[in-house]
Amino acid sequence: MEMSGVSFYDYGGVIDKDTKFVIFGIPWDYLTSIKAPNSAIAPQKIREVTNNLALSTEMGTEIPKLKVIDIGDIPIENENVEKNLKEIKDFVKEIYHQKEDIIPIMIGGDHFCSYPVIKAVGDNFQKREEFGVLIFDAHLDFYEEWDKGVYSHATISHRVFDINYIKNTNLLIVGTRDIDIPELKLSEKEKIHYFDAYLISEHGLSNLIDNIVDFFQKSKIKYLYVSIDIDVFDPSAAPATGYAIPGGLTYREMWQILKVIAKKFKIIGFDLVELAPNLDLPSNITANLAAKLISEFISFISLNLSENNHETKKV
Ligand SMILES: [Mn+2]
């Protein structure tokens, strides 16, 4: 099979000492709870549309100069949850084995794909007291169990919260606007912090960004993993997802949030999940948004990495 992503993220074919970012796909949507979306083919689709994008970011970074490689997809057996969990864990471990400070970027798959990746990233990370998880989602995904049990795209935030170094002080969910009562009660009980999408129109985007930064800084968090469920966007910007809920973020709002977050924190990994190409428009509007956002976020992180290097050298 042709690895179409390689020509875009073309910083060599293998992880070497200069590689900063490694992209991989998890073509797995078994743990979604509705039949319509086919997010398992999203990694392939995002690679395809990525190749139609121009090779520079909005602020003029040349994408081939970003040290990104695409190493393809993790082999998945759709219904074999335990095997996939192990496969994903081993895959991420092997990436770190090849380069300790690599920044993994995962393309899902349904939102449950984020759980084993977040756990593998966190388990590998030494300074756990400075590690936080930022989730963008229309939903809390905080059910204890959902249709297939404890593993589901609707329980992902809860499973992340269950990780022993994740607490309500280093986990934040942003963009919520479709929360069911059992989830509301559970998250109240555990004092889970989340910022609803309406806060942007109520208090402005910069206020929301300040609050996100304050939340993690108060907890002395310096390193973030960022998980982006594409349903955090307004369906007018990203219609191709299983639960298209009105009142979401624009591409530009998310772009601005990620730009600031990448400046204030060290992003040690991120993912984008829940894109369902079969529900997209013929123009691929949602896949394009996903592809664009991934390269823009990489460039923000990359700018920050080189600034940090510069500062170190000056000192
Ligand atoms: Mn989700």
Features of this protein?
315 residues; alpha/beta; Arginase, Chain A; eight-stranded parallel beta sheet; 16% strand; disordered N terminus; binds manganese (II) ion
Protein described:
The structure is a single chain. With 315 residues, the chain is an alpha/beta fold. The chain has a single domain (4-314), classed as Arginase, Chain A (3-Layer(aba) Sandwich). Helix content is 37%, strand content 16%. Strands 2-1-3-8-7-4-5-6 form an eight-stranded parallel β-sheet, with helices on both faces. Strand 5 (171-176), helix 5 and strand 6 form a beta-alpha-beta unit. Helix 2 packs parallel to helix 3 (114-124), helix 3 packs parallel to helix 4 and helix 7 (205-218) packs parallel to helix 8. The structure holds manganese (II) ion (MN). The site of manganese (II) ion has 7 residues, from loops.
Describe what is shown at a glance:
With 315 residues, the protein is of the alpha/beta class.
Largest sheet: 8 strands, parallel
The CATH homologous superfamily corresponds to: Ureohydrolase domain
- Please tell me the total number of domains: 1
Judged by helices, strands and strand pairing, the structural class is alpha/beta
